[in-house]
Amino acid sequence: MSMLKTENIPNGPGVYFFRDKNRRILYIGKAANLKNRLKSYFDTSPKNPRLQKMLETAKNVDWQKTDSEIEALILESQLIKKYRPPFNIMLRDDKQYFYTGFTNERFPKILISHQITTIYRNIEVEIWVGPFTDGGTLKTVLRFLRRIFPYCTCKQKHNNYCLNYHIGNCPGFCCLKKEATAKQVMAYKKNIAAIKEILSGRKKSLIGRFEKELNAIVKKERFEQAIELRDKIEKLKNVFENARIVNEMSRKEIDWPNDLAELKKALNLSILPKRIEGYDVSNIQGEFATGAMVVFMDGKPDKDKYRKFKIKLTATPNDAGMLKEILTRRFKHREWKFPNLIIIDGGKAQLNAAVAAIPNKTPVIALTKNTEHKGNHIYTSNKKTPPLKRINNHSAAGQSFSRAGKSAVPLKNMPPAARNLILQIDSEAHRFAIGYYRKLHKEIFK
Known about the structure:
By secondary structure, the chain is an alpha+beta fold. It has helices at 34-43, 49-57, 69-83, 86-90, 135-148, 163-166, 182-199, 203-219, 223-242, 258-267, 319-330, 348-357, 416-440, and strands at 14-19, 25-31, 60-65, 98-103, 110-113, 119-120, 123-132, 275-284, 287-297, 300-301, 307-310, 341-345, 364-369, 376-380, 409-410. The chain contains 13 helices and 15 strands. α10 crosses α13 (416-440) and α11 packs parallel to α12.
């Protein structure tokens, strides 16, 4: 084949085809950047003799653009299965393709394997989808889809909710010893069916069906269910429109709001704070005390998850003690998913009370008014948080998060998006707490 002219080749992701003189497909490949990938075939002489033979046999090359690398991976799989190009087999260098299996169980599991077999590790497999050329990208695709369509990976049943449930990757009921309802089983199988359709190249028909279902739900005025389905559709579209897959990538933040990414970086959090809980206490001199919990999912308030608390503590005014009571009661509800970050209103005393009440190592921020300096300040429980002067161009006057609970850090030194999110959550918690307080004790405000 003569030297490739690259002027008209797009820079985006897609699938490319090497063809012989009769337009028969010799080889199909995928690329994150079609121009760079195709150009690489001709930049240097190929060391692989079979690749050299393919290039000598090929008389033409064309391509098909896709919206993302995910779609390129899935389209490549479908086309290889359909056309069985001869050089796709020869150029594997004895490496095997990857296949995704769906087990035949009440709560099906998803497998990745090189081998297609009806029984995999003593479990019957209903169907295998593939072949896929890139195992790393395939695993990343499944991580994306699991955020939207949670499924189970637990090997045995247990009494309490698993960790994957708390981080949103598992429905929870599927791996409990407690018997699931028929409705729950149906919901789980719908998730598995959706993933199966996407990997089989039927993403557009799936989204179209979801949108029809959404319209029907709205007409029946089942608005909470409609919001949940709408968000699922939007997330699914975002995966395909925005996702840029990188092998070896353990997490991806481009799909999530910038304020979450900035907050994660500023506080040196181990994971993106997809679920943030904010707490506030409302009382007059310790009497008629109430508490509130607000929940922000993906940077937005999720009011269905808000909770109210009547304070049982009857001692003298003690905001730290009241906060500790609220958090202790909250974490007894193991059916509520664990937060990735907690924001409380208060100072060092409230921070210490919160840390003492939380049964895991969930990071905590305490937002307070500093009496020595103007403006809001924060304390944090994360001892590994870096100095703010390393985060942005503002001077932090040498102050650092590294000494948790020892020194306050000006909130103004936080990145703007992260700062605004903290203030929004704190304000929402205060609004919700005072609203509940006034509802219970109307006579005080007459």
